[in-house]
Amino acid sequence: MSSPLRPSNSAANRGLGNLGRRKRSREPDDETSSVVPPSSPPPSSPPMLPFDDDDNERDEEAELLGDIDDIDEMAEDEDGIDLFGDNFEKDYRSTADDQYRGEYIDDDGDHEELDVATRRQLEARMNKRDRELERRRRMPAAFLQDDEDGDIDLTRQPRRRRHHYDEDRDDVEMGDDAMEELSLEELTDVKASNLTDWVLQPQVLRSIYREFKSFLTEYTDPAGASVYGNKIKTLGEVNSASLEVSYAHLLETKAALAYFLANEPTEVLKVFDQVALDVTLFHYPQYHDIHNEIHVRITDLPVSYTLRQLRQSHLNCLIRVSGVVTRRTGVFPQLKYVMFVCGKCNITLGPFQQEASAEVKISYCQNCQSKGPFSVHSEKTVYRNYQKLTLQESPGSVPAGRLPRQREVVLLADLIDSAKPGDEIEVTGIYRNSYDAQLNNKNGFPVFATIIEANHVVKSHDQLAGFHLTEEDEREIRALSRDPEIVDKIVRSIAPSIYGHLDVKTAIALSLFGGVSKEAQGKMSIRGDINVLLLGDPGTAKSQFLKYTEKTAHRAVFATGQGASAVGLTASVRRDPLTSEWTLEGGALVLADRGTCLIDEFDKMNDQDRTSIHEAMEQQTISISKAGIVTTLQARCAVVAAANPIGGRYNSSAPFSENVQLTEPILSRFDILCVVRDLVDPSEDERLANFVIESHHRANPARPLRDQDGNLINADGHPIDDDGYRIDKKTKQRLPLTDEELATRDAEKQRREDEKDGEIPQELLRKYIIYARERCHPKLYQIDQDKIARLFADMRRESLATGAYPITVRHLEAIMRIAESFCKMRLSEYCSAQDIDRAIAVTVDSFIGSQKVSCKKALSRAFAKYTLSRPKPQSKRRAGIPAPDPFKPRMQSSTRAR
Q1: What CATH architecture applies to the domain 471-676+769-867?
Q2: pLDDT bracket for residue 35 (50, 70, 90)
Q3: What domain of life does the UniProt record list for this protein's source (predicted)?
Q4: Which segments within 300-370 are labelled E, that is strand?
Q5: CATH class of the domain defined by 184-299
Q6: I want to staple 695 with a disulfide (CB 3.0 to 4.6 A). Which of 21, 46, 837, 897 is the partner?
């Protein structure tokens, strides 16, 4: 309040000096004093300092002197100043002090002109000095610290008067806001005990804001176009609330921001979101009517972890993990900014930001000082969407003999419903810890649960986990596809450690490549995956084929019929411990979506469990109606199953349906049936024994190796030549080879012959399969419809006569899928007549091989007109593997080679 001796309009009548010192007049109806309740101190009051009785006396004396000065000023204002008095001429007398001294004036000297950079640097230093002087002038003397800058003049502080704090408050805030920002190099010089304290400093946050804003507005591609300017433009066109920013781009231009983002993502992402919102509002000023927040989504994080690699060192850091979604909760509203209403005085308190670690609670009301009760103001409280996923390790990345691990993933804002059970996703987010009461009660000491707060979620369709194709890989694959015998090479490269079984290898190759799924009229989906059933005697490498497929397929789930149940293969319903609601958890078929599901001991499954997969094998969906949940899950996978015949061995005198405990509906869903027999043949058994021994010899770890130049060497490091001699390093003499060295040379020659024979390396074969499934989608063009129609009619007639197993329309569709798979092996866009002939040959061989022995010869002669046109392999085959005979079922013995 003003002094009672000072009139309210004194500021208006005061001189220019007082006007320059005052920022505004003091009216009795000031807005500040009108809005402050009388029970609380005004917000503009200066901070209270400790004082004693002497201070009180000095303050009273200073106030009294101030009032006397005000009275003198008031008297001068009322009487005015007489400019033409009796002694006004004295003001114009000349004095000696009116002359300027000429010291330190050098008008004749020649000074160099400053360049622009030096001038700006000096001006910045002078501006900094002026700001420091102004700040210290306004600061009370009690707050000043001893400084080495003794040349700063503090005597020019104005006379302290009451309530001057109001006038200078805005100036002090302007001085704080105008604090100097840090350069990008100064940001990396952390001047705090830890990185979190450094990032939370105001000047650091402002510097991060400035640098990221310049990054969004200035980063360009090699063509000179603005990368993120176009993304923001697209963001506004689709009304999105997410802006994807590449970590590689940020690391390339703003390495300091990339470092802060990876190690302190919580605070840095808040600044990034604000910058993205400001830049978006610059382009779309009314965008806040659609979204009041823009979220920056980080992509291309260079380091990827598996779920079992996460440790405490990754807490509160940005990580990238991948896995399969096994469970998903509903969408819940989560508090973001909470507003409370006091039950005593009905005043609204807040907003209070709700953190993920603890619940917001207030202890007393700031207005009435009561302790409640307090209720949440639902209308003014800000909510956001909340959803939780269970992420499990991908089946192909789990080490042998280990159980897959899982983590909880939290989805917020617009990431809701970005993945569903069965999807393989890649999550970039913050690895956090949260308090879990159940863990503490169970362990008896403080243990924290861990969750991943997702920042970016992307589905990894048809991609091998951690497996990416380079340009060199694509060139090599394209060159390999131009080989006219690429189909035969692929078949021989399937399970090379298993002897024979070209029919089984062909069926597995067709299943790995797969056909093309179609959407028929009326939105009915026709599957493109090829299902295979292996039925045969024990010890014929059926399980080995499944294990090989599990390692080679881009995504595979292995299960056994004895340990699998209906819910384990399809989906189960469980109660969520957090929300107590029923949620779905996908089974093996759901986890193998867009991949391959392998089921061993298929005949050991219960009939009820086996019936549950009928829908998944044909419609490739799983319908669930349990615990109030009615939904459909995707199971777009190929099924490769292995079973043993009734009684342990296959009875060739009985048809196929009598040798296996499988119903006709399940048999009709398999596109290819392979009967594997263990027959006694002395010549074939001898070749089999040689193949096994040779395989063990090649797998011997003590065999001679190669030197740096690729030449063969023995155990002592001596080179071995092809003429039967070894060269001694010291004497350079040619010595005859020992028996072991001769065996090494012969094995090397055999390996070279195998390579020339066209066997594709396994790593390249996996890349080839991935490339074909992703890039190749062949179409049926100019196929022989009459030939396929006659084949289908003949097969149905013979099936009815022999009673082996029924031929349905599914087998007709299987011919189309098999032809498309052969076309994918060639990486062609259209199916040719050669692909149709190969598909017909595979279908006929599968049909004849499942017949009883009394009908095989007659059926082979009847269907010879369809199989004679199959392509004949022209390359030299590996020793011990004879060419297939179209009139003889391919039933050779086999064994495990390694």
Answers
A1: 3-Layer(aba) Sandwich (3.40)
A2: very low
A3: Eukaryota
A4: 318-328, 332-342, 348-353
A5: alpha beta
A6: 897
